[in-house]
Structures are given as C-alpha cells and as structure tokens.
Request: fold
Amino acid sequence: MEAFRNIFEREYTWAEGFMRNVRRFGDKSAMYCLDTDEEWSYSALNREANRLAAALTADGLTKGDVVMYQLLNCPVFVFAYIACHKLGAVNCPINYRLSAGEIAANIDDSKPTVLIFEADHRDEMAAAVEMAAHKPKRLIMTGGDRPPEGAVTYEEYVAYRPDGEPELTYELNVYDETTRLYTSGTTGRMKGVPLTSLNEVLSAHDVMIHFPMNHTDKSMNTTPWFHRGGLHCAGPCPTLYAGGTMYVTRKFNADKCLEYVEKFGITFVIGVPTVLDALADAQERAGRSLGSLKGIVTMGSALERAACIRYQNVLTPNIFNGYGTTETFWNTFLRPFDLPENAGTAGGSCVDDEVRVIRLFEDRRGEPEELAATDGTEVGEVIIKSPAKSPYAYYNNEAETEAKFYKGYIYTNDLATWNGDRYVTIVGRKDDMIISSGENIYPTQVEEVLNSHPKVKDCIVTAAPDRVRGEVVTAYVVKADDGLTCEELDEYCKASPMIANYKRPRYYRFIGEIPLNLTGKKLHFRAKEMAREDLKNGFLYRV
Reply:
C-alpha cells in the first residue's frame, strides 16, 4: 500500500497526464488558434510551455508561488496554465472585466510573484498595481509592443529560453494547489477557490465520463476560461488531459463558430444559453453542416423547454446542460436523453457527486439529513457533496469557509425544489446574487459605490429580468440632493475604480424610502419584485 500511495501521489498529477499525451500524441494537434491560424502539436505546445517555465524559473519562481493572469481565451493562457503545472506554481486566472480596484484586491489577496496581462488592459493594470500594497516581481504584457513602466512583453520574456523539461529540485504531488479561481463573496469580497492537482484531474475525468470525451475530440469553449466552467468544461484542463484538440478564439461570433464547426469537424461547443440562442439564429440564416457535433454544452442557467426543442431541431439533438459552482465544478447534468422532457430542471446528481435539497429554517442552518419533500413544490436550499472536485475551503478566508462548508457539503444559497427522481429545479437565491450574462454580481458591492456619491442618501440594488442577459443590474436610489440624475450616477459608476463596468446599473428609479424589515435589513427580494413590475409598467429609467 505504501508503494501505491507514493506512486499515486507523485504520478497522478495533471502535469503528468499532459506529459503522457506529449509522449504518445507528440505530432497530433493539441491547439489551433482561430484568430491567427496558428497550430501547435502536443510536442510544440510542450516546448512553448517549457520556454515560459524556464523564464519563470530564472525569475526565482518556485513551488507554491502564484502566477496571476488576466487574459482572454488565447494561446498564452494555455502556455501559462501548463507551465505552472510543470513547476508546481499556482495558476491564478482572473476576470478580464474587473476594475482596477478589484484587480488590486485580488493582487493583495493572492500576492502573485508574476502578473501577465493583455495590452488592451494596460491602463487598468498599471492603476491596479499602483493601488495594490503587494507589488509583483514581474509584470508581463501580451499582444502589444509598448508595455507600461516596469513591465516587459511576453515575447521579450521568453526569448532565447530553453524549451527542454524543467529540472525541479522538489517533487510534485497530487495534493499541491495548482489553480486558484476567484468567485463572488457574500459581502462583495471575491473568494479564492484553491484547487489541487487531483481536483483538476478528477474534474477532467468528470468531463470524460459525462460527455464522454476522448483523444479524438475537438473542443471549442466559448466561455471565459477564468471561470470554472470555462477552464474545466472542455477547456484547457480536460481537453489536454484527454489528448483532444482545442480550438481557441478570443471573442465569440456565432456565424464564425458555425463556420469553424463545419470546417474543422469540431465535436463539442460550450457556451451559456445566450450563446446557444445566437448559434440557433445564425444556423437558421446559414444552414451549415453540423454533423460532427457530439454535443453543445451549456451552463449558468436552466434551459427552457421551448428553447431546448429549438436548439435540438436547429443545431443538434445533442444538447447538454450542467449546474454547479466554482467550488465544486458541475454537480448535476442533463444529457440528450434527459431532454426536452426535463428541460427547466438542473438535472440529477453527477456520478461522483450528491446533490440534495434541504429544508429552510429561519433560525438555523438545515442539516444534510433534513430533506425537503421530493414533490416539486417545497422550496429548500441546494447543498452539494463533491469529494473529487472541491477543495472544501477558501484561500485566506476562514470565515467564508466556516459559513459555506458543513459536514462534507457546500451550502450553495441556491433555492430549489426537487421531484421523485431527485431532479433539481432552481427557483432563486438566498443571498440575492444577480447573475447577468453568466457573471455573478453581488448587490452590496454596487450599493457601496452608489452610496459613496455625495448626492445619494441610500440605495438598494437588485435585478430586473432581461431576455438576453438573464438579469440586469437595477438600482433604487433615495436622493440626498434633488438635482441628482440617473446619467450622473451612471458616469460616476463608469469612473469608479471599485466596480467593473459590467456591474454598473442599467436601470434606475428614484424612490422615497428603501424597503426594510423590522431590524433595518434591506429587503432585496422585495426590491426584485418591484423591479419586475416597474419594468413591465415602464417605470424604470434605462441609461
């Protein structure tokens, strides 16, 4: 048993899985960049990752050091991901839509040794580094030739570096932290989710089981890779672990995506429901040959029955839908044989997971054994046991770890019903999170920015329904100055370094008082009801 444990812990890492594919599929295509028509075999991709690993090693980076990168889906993202795995460093991809203040908060939380960023984001990154207390040792810019002061271009950084395997003075282990992803917190503070190499291997296995995926597959994940669903759902993690081929593009275009499916024989496309809607519109115009598709996989929200039937008729019968969290990847899954009959639900538990709906109590947390009725009516909280894919902790955040993880389950704050087959239907959130175009937005963070305006007395932020985004941020504001306008607030949010542009309100309404309960807590659920009715009646002002 000791021999098994030693071999397992050293050899079952994601890095070793990738190297197995380099050895057996060396000349096979690993990655194709659709924006530049560049292609890398497994051997060539390995060499590029090794060049970056050599440069990082020359900078003194070692096991456990953090490499933070704010990149769109691009080849450099993949080079960094592989290089960090090889060195035992921590991948830390962050949202490329964050404001300077939010980036600075991530820098101070994770304290990266190296920071890689896009040329298009140079100004925000320079401001973030200036604001942050921690200063990364190395700043690297991709996609341009005029880096800000103190930074170098990616090409300069890796130039003349050797492409052989890095020589380590330490061993890698399946329990090493290899990736840290940030997700929204219950106070607006982003939480770091530290994933081990074993978490990533078993996340890859989950995809290989549920699609299924193998080395003959060709994937195109259109969602941002800094998300769990982007990185681990037919993104770099499972595709390169399975020995498949990734097709990479920085920005989604429905017509181009269908062209690529037809031209290259892509087998899996991944996107949020709005992506499927755009693909269906484009396919009705173009009528491309999509016979290579084994599946189009969506996540982030439920598929309505009518939409599901349309996608199956127009795009492919092979529609999939997953539900989960950053902390646990996906945990319920709908496959083509579940649809369209179970459209609207999140499906049932994945192979290695257990998803439950438990009863709600006003004065305490429900126990895992206190199950809601499986009658499709009683609303409870979704809890998830995911021993293979979850770290069961947050980085540098004991309070949130204590609040969220309990008796082997993560308490999601999602409200749901479930039926006799234990298929879960999500009906809302306990913590009032706004989900707009797949992005999590917490109202209190937006409220804090609005309340810092001198003409605002108070505000409450919620969501109004939107056909394209799912939800849009909506603010109800009590004026401290009668001269305050919606346009003034919009410009204030745009200029604030403490809020990303996608989080700013799109709708406003001025009101006399904020809806509160008897203890003075803001009633976000009441505000959400107001927003729904006000939108219907034309009372909301769009900026």
